[in-house]
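Researcher: Please predict.
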Amino acid sequence: MTPIELSTRRRVTGLTSDEFARLFVSLQREVDGEATDVESWELVGPPVTAEQHLIDTFAAANEFVATLADRLYHTIMPVTEESVITAYADDLTFWASHPDLGGVPCALWNIAALQAAEWARKETGIACELDVREPLV
């Protein structure tokens, strides 16, 4: 995986380098070096031992978002003019609302929420309101 490919894949997920590093660590991957090295890996490339784990992390993030988007979609359907989907401005607020998802960056939830809202809009023609929760601290 080239540095540009790593950076592009991370950015497509909507995650910052720090969020991706936390996700990488939360999946308990064993690699040479620290997960906090993501920024340097985007400049010089990841160690060979980390490449498959990075690919697995991206796949896990994509699968999580797809599963969560489907769950959110079925939660808001049938959508009405009053339907609201919650997004989160920070991880702490997100984790307080969803303790079962502690450690998962709120960016992944927000991507799933937008995907669910888009599916509902395409099916019904009704746009859901996005309610962004203010940070707790």
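Model: Residues 48-76 form the longest helix (29 residues).
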